[in-house]
Amino acid sequence: MHKEIGAYEAKNKLPEILRRIESGDTFTITNRSKPVADLVPSRSSERLKTETAIANILKARKHKVSDEELNELRKEARK
Predict the structure, then answer these.
(1) Which residues 6+ apart lie within 8 Å of 6 measured at CB?
(2) pLDDT at residue 64 is higher than 80
(3) String of b and e for 36-48 (b: at least 16 CB within 10 Å)?
(4) How far is the C-alpha of 1 from the C-alpha of 10, rounded, in Å?
């Protein structure tokens, strides 16, 4: 979700804004209603998530998982 936010509000709500950016939101900071800067998620954090996911997949491929274990994992993930 993209949102415009004034500089004063951005300063006062920075921790909340950073949490939202981590989850994928984007912001344009305005000064007197004029766009000044865009805040977007860092590409390096996305790269790190991707590398971690790939490493986990490769590690999981080395271990055989029975159908029963797989079903248990699915049930746990839905809780």
Answers:
(1) 29, 30, 31
(2) no
(3) eeebeeeeeeeee
(4) 16
Residue 24 belongs to domain with CATH number: 3.40.1620
- Residues 28, 1: Cα–Cα separation, whole Å: 11
pLDDT per residue as tens digits for the range 28-41:
999 999 999 999 98
Q: Is the pTM of this model over 0.85?
A: no
Q: Give me the number of domains the chain comprises.
A: 2
Which pair of structure tokens corresponds to residue 4?
Answer: 């415009």
Judgement on whether residues 30 and 14 belong to the same structural domain of the protein = yes
